[in-house]
């Protein structure tokens, strides 16, 4: 109980401003992870609603495309996504993800990271907390694609802890 | 405990149905019947109420329920007090001993099924607990919500149920439903009158969620305080009783919205005297609640070319400050609607414009498009809201039927998006400009487009499901999916490259490959990833059906037929599926199986292309060709090495061994070959000779269906002469083998490359195997790396707007 109380205190300041769910507004995003056979890199691509991203960054007054057209905007988004999305190998060792950039296309903000191709692909741990601090009902779906197989990690209301994903041999 | 076991059974049943709908699997191999018909195995047998054509049958019936309601808002207590006289007419062939009513506010009771069954990680508003088996914390907003639900006494209080003579009638409340026992059996064709009195406390929408409630504003220099009230699912409403389900007595769990019966409503709404009220229906007593100027403006708006203020922004600002202890009663009448909602506030600006339409004898010739919003929503709302309503009517009517009601309204308030007959709640965080640190008023592109999008969506719901009365409590996709499809069409017609959230096939591929999804044909309350499952995927399916499978002409006629057949009636999924097939004349069972009953995705690969040409048997041609093929092959490495080393052939050094065969290779044309060819030609029929003499080439193309959904194969051939051709192979190409096919293409031009799904129209999830010769398309990330795109924006350009205009000015 003490642990709960401590965490509640630390989270309260952020979570009290969380927006309510509405009937037809869905707070959801997708992260796609796959190795690019041409470059040999593992690419991590986040797709979020641009409007939601700016709300999370407290930049509601800004146009998302323009915000991501500035160095400061790119840095802000990169730092934010780098902090709120983490990925580790099966042993829990975090991958060092390099921020490539971000852009707006239509309603969506796309955020790009890369990392060296993992040597082992049997198991991964992902922790996708993008926008979760801004919206109670934010659902993030992470698709990992290795050896032509897709595994999905879901994190959303009530299930925010890291998810282990296995690719059985 | 009983509640939990009920839920478990419902889920198991849904899963069973889904499993049963899969194509028949074999035991001796992996073959599956992807084109197996759904009729009579998975779909209900046709009867006299519902036909195999998808049309209502000769004995189709539905109930009628008429309401006369008085409701009063106690603003201080945020409490509603109501009484209603319900006239229930039984058109069913079944005698009824009791009637069921919905009490949807009971979902907020702490002991409701909805509240008691919130789980960690479910699809709705859960407890917000973090961490699965090892809880790590709970969000403050989740605690606040729980506290309010526990302490504030939400839910319907039924204070009286009486018959037409005022005698008490027995009733039983079961979660969000109430059974009223009739003294006398209600026979077919008979009506019964009941009186119900109730009250309930309104929820604070921003805290509790839900589809209605209140929002109060902080008073600032620029904006006033005060509140907006959006009132919905507020009165005891007769549950649906249908030919296929009997009583639709499924508890409201907060997700699957509702279906009801059509009827006429007379509603008197008593609110503080300075409120402006918007409601389902037409205002009956404008002389009592509007001043002369407002009535004149309303009349002017009927024939105006652009929206006219009925209540101006400055009048609304002044109204906020008046305050009053007196009350006024607004009277509305609505005919042939399946529900009634309303909104009230002293903050409301009100604008309106008359929209002319061809009512085709079944709908009004003039519809009043109207919007109600606070100054905080300006200047976006006066610029776009009513015009978005007008645009929605135009596009949706072209796909279905003329807008059926005299009024279409868009209301700003706490609810982000919700629909009721003639009235919609839109907004939430969308559509409100922001004031930056320097006091400049701006709004983002997303705020504008989000506002237009949500208004199109919610107004669109007045067609589906408020007029085409599908049951969202069971099948969310039937109204959200169809409506999102039409929203996409309307957005695509608003401006070029409108950034729609859903509809374009590429956008749904991520969801369709994910591993924890469920079929579209899943019971509403069990759906996870609601936006993708119930909105995005069915909308995309219909886009694919229209643009790729059927074509616009066939699709539009079939869709319009569905809409008109079930206008003011109650369709099931099978009525939709059947109508689309019957009218288009195209078998679509494979499509419904793949897109609506399965969690397979679309991914077809082009594995191999082999070119074949006709053997002319002409030795002058064929021998030369064979020689050229030999010459084109790799030379023996040893022979080449010897030449480079200057080693001369024995034959060259000893010409006496050179003979006939040394001078003529095996491709030299012989007289016997010429004679054989002449004889071959003589035996050919003329048509055979024409084929042999033609330049036709046959290409063998191997495909693998990696995703599981059978789909048309769309190919773009590029030829050596630079030309291209797109070929569309119907999905039936997969009927013998839904996993692998070889298909042939004949052309007189040399093919140099082939691309599968060149227009990105099938939601193919992996395009890396869509090319011959094979190539890997750059990933999105690679494309980003190699380019930089930019856009402009109001704030960055140091532009601002004012509350009264979207015209930009320097900051």
What labels would you give this structure?
heterodimer; A: six-stranded mixed sheet; three-stranded antiparallel sheet; disordered N terminus; B: 811 residues; alpha+beta; Immunoglobulin-like; seven-stranded mixed sheet; six-stranded mixed sheet; 22 helices; 26% strand
Strands, helices and their partners?
The complex is a heterodimer of chains A (169) and B (811).
Chain A (H helix, E strand, L loop, with lengths): L1 H14 L12 E8 L5 E9 H7 L7 H4 L3 H14 E5 L8 E8 L2 E9 L6 E6 L10 E8 L2 E7 L7 E4 L3
Parallel strand pairs in A: 1-7
Antiparallel strand pairs in A: 1-2, 2-5, 3-6, 4-5, 6-9, 7-8
Chain B lengths: L1 H19 L43 E11 L4 E11 L6 E7 L10 H4 L12 E2 L6 E2 L1 H12 L5 E7 L7 E4 L2 E10 L4 E11 L3 H4 L4 E4 L10 E5 L5 E2 L2 E2 L3 E2 L15 E10 L3 E4 L2 E2 L2 H4 L2 H12 L4 E4 L1 H8 L6 E11 L4 E4 L3 E8 L9 E8 L6 H20 L7 E7 L3 E4 L2 E5 L6 E2 L5 E2 L2 H16 L15 H17 L16 H5 L16 H21 L1 H14 L7 H12 L4 H9 L6 E10 L5 H14 L4 H8 L5 H4 L6 H4 L7 H13 L2 H8 L3 E9 L7 E7 L4 E6 L10 E8 L3 E6 L14 E2 L7 H6 L13 E4 L2 E6 L1
Parallel strand pairs in B: 1-15, 22-23, 23-25
Antiparallel strand pairs in B: 1-2, 2-9, 3-8, 3-12, 4-5, 6-9, 7-8, 10-11, 11-20, 13-14, 15-19, 16-20, 17-19, 18-21, 21-22, 24-25, 26-27, 28-29, 29-32, 30-31, 30-33, 33-34, 35-36
Helix pairs in contact in B: 8-9, 8-10, 9-10, 10-12, 12-13, 13-14
Can you tell me about this structure?
The complex is a heterodimer of chains A (169) and B (811). Chain A is an alpha+beta fold and 169 residues long. Chain A has one domain (26-166). Chain A contains four helices and nine strands, in the order H-E-E-H-H-H-E-E-E-E-E-E-E. Chain A has helices spanning 2-15, 50-56, 64-67, 71-84; strands at residues 28-35, 41-49, 85-89, 98-105, 108-116, 123-128, 139-146, 149-155, 163-166. In chain A, strands 4-5-2-1-7-8 form a six-stranded mixed sheet. In chain A, a hairpin with a 2-residue loop joins strand 4 (98-105) and strand 5 (108-116). The relative contact order of chain A is 0.20. Residues 1-23 of chain A have low confidence and may be disordered. With 811 residues, chain B is α+β, with helices and mostly antiparallel strands. Chain B is 29% helix and 26% strand. Chain B is built from 22 helices and 36 strands. Chains A and B meet through helix 1, strand 1, strand 2, helix 2 and helix 3 of A and strand 4, strand 5, helix 3, helix 4 and strand 26 of B.
């Amino acid at each position: 109980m003490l642990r709960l109380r401590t965490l509640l205190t630390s989270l309260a300041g952020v979570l009290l401003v969380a927006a309510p769910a509405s009937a037809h507004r869905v707070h959801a995003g997708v992260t796609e992870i796959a190795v690019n056979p041409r470059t040999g890199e593992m690419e991590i691509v986040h797709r979020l609603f641009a409007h939601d991203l700016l709300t999370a960054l407290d930049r509601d007054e800004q146009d998302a495309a323009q915000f991501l057209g500035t160095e400061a905007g790119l840095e802000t988004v990169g730092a934010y996504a780098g902090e709120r999305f983490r990925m580790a190998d099966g042993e829990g060792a975090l991958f060092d993800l390099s921020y490539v950039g971000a852009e707006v296309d239509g309603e969506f903000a796309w955020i790009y990271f890369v990392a060296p191709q993992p040597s082992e692909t049997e198991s991964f741990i992902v922790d996708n907390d993008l926008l979760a601090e801004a919206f109670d009902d934010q659902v993030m779906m992470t698709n990992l694609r290795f050896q032509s197989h897709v595994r999905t990690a879901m994190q959303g209301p009530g299930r925010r802890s890291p998810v282990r994903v296995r690719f059985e041999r | 405990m009983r509640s939990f076991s009920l839920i478990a059974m419902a889920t198991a049943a849904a899963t069973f149905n889904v499993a049963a709908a899969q194509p028949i699997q074999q035991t001796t191999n992996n073959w599956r019947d992807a084109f197996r018909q759904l009729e009579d195995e998975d779909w209900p047998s046709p009867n006299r109420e519902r036909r195999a054509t998808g049309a209502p049958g000769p004995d189709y019936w539905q109930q009628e329920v008429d309401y006369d309601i008085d409701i009063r808002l106690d603003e201080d207590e945020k409490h509603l007090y109501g009484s209603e006289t319900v006239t229930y007419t039984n058109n069913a062939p079944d005698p009824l001993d009791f009637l069921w009513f919905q009490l949807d506010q009971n979902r907020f009771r702490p002991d409701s099924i909805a509240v008691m069954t919130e789980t960690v990680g479910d699809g709705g508003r859960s407890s917000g607990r973090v961490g699965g088996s090892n809880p790590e914390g709970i969000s403050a907003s989740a605690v606040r919500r729980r506290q309010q639900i526990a302490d504030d006494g939400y839910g319907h209080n039924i204070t009286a149920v009486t018959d037409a003579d005022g005698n008490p009638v027995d009733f039983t409340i079961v979660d969000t439903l109430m059974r009223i026992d009739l003294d006398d059996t209600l026979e077919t064709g008979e009506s019964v009158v009941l009186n119900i009195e109730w009250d309930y406390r309104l929820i604070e929408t921003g805290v509790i969620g839900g589809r209605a409630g209140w929002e109060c504003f902080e008073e600032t220099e620029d904006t006033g305080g005060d509140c907006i009230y959006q009132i919905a699912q507020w009165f005891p409403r007769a549950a649906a009783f249908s030919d296929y389900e009997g009583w639709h007595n499924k508890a409201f769990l907060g997700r699957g919205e509702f279906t009801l019966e059509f009827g006429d409503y007379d509603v008197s709404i008593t609110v503080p005297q300075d409120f402006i009220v918007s409601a389902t229906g037409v205002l009956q007593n404008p002389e009592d609640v509007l001043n002369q100027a407002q009535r004149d403006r309303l009349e002017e708006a009927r024939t105006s070319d652009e929206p006219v203020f009925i209540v101006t922004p400055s009048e609304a600002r002044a109204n906020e400050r008046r305050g009053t202890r007196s009350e006024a009663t607004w009277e509305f009448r609505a005919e042939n609607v399946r529900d009634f909602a309303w909104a009230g506030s002293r903050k409301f600006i009100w604008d309106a414009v008359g929209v002319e339409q061809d009512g085709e004898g079944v709908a009004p010739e003039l519809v009043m498009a109207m919007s109600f919003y606070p100054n905080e929503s300006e200047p976006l709302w006066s610029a776009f809201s009513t015009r978005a309503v007008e645009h929605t009517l135009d596009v949706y009517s072209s796909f279905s039927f003329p807008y059926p009601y005299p009024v279409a309204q868009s209301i700003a308030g706490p609810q982000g998006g919700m629909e009721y007959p003639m009235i919609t709640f839109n907004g939430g965080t969308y559509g409100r400009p922001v004031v930056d640190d320097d006091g400049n008023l701006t709004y983002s592109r997303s705020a504008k487009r989000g506002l237009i999008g949500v208004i199109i969506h919610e107004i669109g719901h007045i067609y589906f499901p408020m007029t085409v009365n599908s049951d969202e409590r069971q099948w969310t996709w039937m109204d959200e999916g169809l409506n999102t499809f039409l929203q996409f069409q309307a957005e695509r017609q608003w401006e070029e490259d409108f950034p729609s959230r859903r509809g374009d096939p590429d956008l749904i591929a991520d969801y369709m490959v994910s591993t924890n999804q469920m079929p579209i044909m899943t019971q509403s309350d069990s759906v996870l990833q609601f936006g993708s499952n119930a909105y995005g995927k069915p909308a995309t399916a219909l886009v694919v059906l229209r643009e790729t499978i059927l074509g616009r002409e066939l699709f539009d006629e079939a869709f319009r037929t569905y809409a008109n057949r079930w206008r003011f009636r109650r369709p099931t999924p099978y009525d939709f599926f059947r109508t689309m097939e019957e009218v288009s004349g195209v078998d679509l069972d494979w499509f419904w199986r793949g897109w609506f009953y399965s969690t397979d995705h679309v991914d077809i690969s082009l594995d191999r292309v082999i070119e074949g040409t006709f053997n002319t048997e002409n030795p002058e041609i064929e021998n030369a060709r064979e020689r050229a093929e030999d010459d084109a092959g790799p030379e023996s490495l040893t022979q080449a090495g010897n030449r480079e080393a200057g080693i001369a052939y024995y034959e060259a050094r000893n010409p006496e061994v050179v003979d006939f065969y040394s001078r003529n290779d095996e491709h030299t044309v012989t007289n016997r070959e010429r004679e054989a060819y002449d004889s071959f030609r003589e035996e050919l029929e003329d048509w055979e000779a024409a084929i042999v003499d033609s330049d036709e080439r046959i290409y063998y193309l191997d495909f693998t269906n990696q995703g599981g959904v059978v789909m048309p194969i769309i190919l773009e051939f590029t030829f050596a002469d630079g030309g291209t051709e797109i070929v569309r192979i119907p999905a039936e190409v997969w009927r013998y083998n839904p996993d692998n096919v070889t298909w042939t293409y004949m052309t007189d031009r040399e093919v140099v490359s082939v691309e599968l799904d060149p227009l990105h129209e099938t939601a193919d999830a992996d395009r890396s195997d869509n090319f011959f010769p094979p190539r890997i398309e750059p990933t999105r990330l690679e494309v980003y790396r190699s380019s930089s795109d930019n856009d402009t924006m109001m704030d960055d350009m140091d532009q601002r707007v004012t509350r009264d205009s979207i015209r930009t000015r320097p900051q």
